[in-house]
Design brief:
This protein has helices spanning 2-20, 67-80, 98-118, 140-143, and strands at residues 41-42, 49-55, 85-92, 126-133, 145-151. It is of the alpha/beta class. A 5-stranded mixed sheet has the order 1-4-3-5-2. 22% of the residues are buried.
């Protein structure tokens, strides 16, 4: 008899549990997020106070060894001017493939932005400017640079 009561109790609980289940909610895919504002390249005249400049090795987008030293005053300027933003502009020389150079200059600017945001800069206040080719009359190592400007 105890066994029958036990089976009845377990069966009753199982039926009750099944009866209380709510129908599963259909899975709806989340709408695709718009492109991050940080990846938007602004196309405006270069302006603002030049507060940092980094020079890169040929065909490289890795930050140079002096990046921490160069970026420290940039982070301070951003903190001291809460109403301003940073604009990061990558440059390249006219030699070689223009599309490859353009992408390399953009990747250098992105590396600088990543370094700044990893050190506490608000990503919403750090913008990337469309890469630009330097004039053919300057030294090539000067062209492999990223400029950081403080703008309103």
């Amino acid at each position: 008899i105890i066994t029958l009561l036990l089976f009845g109790l377990i069966g009753g609980l199982a039926i009750r549990t099944l009866g209380n289940k709510k129908p599963a909610m259909p899975v709806v895919a989340a709408p695709a997020a718009p492109a991050a504002a940080a990846d938007v390249l602004i196309d405006a005249p270069l302006s603002g106070e030049l507060i940092g400049k980094l020079y890169f090795e040929l065909a490289k987008a890795e930050l140079p060894a002096d990046a921490t030293t160069v970026l420290a005053p940039v982070l301070k300027a951003l903190a001291d001017n809460p109403a301003k933003k940073l604009v990061i502009a990558g440059f390249h020389d006219p030699s070689g493939d223009a599309a490859v150079n353009h992408e390399l200059a953009k990747n250098r600017a992105k590396a600088v932005r990543a370094a700044l945001t990893s050190q506490g800069a608000d990503a919403a206040r750090v913008q990337l400017r469309k890469p630009e080719q330097t004039a053919a009359d300057g030294p090539a190592d000067e062209a492999r640079r990223v400029e950081i400007r403080l703008v309103d």
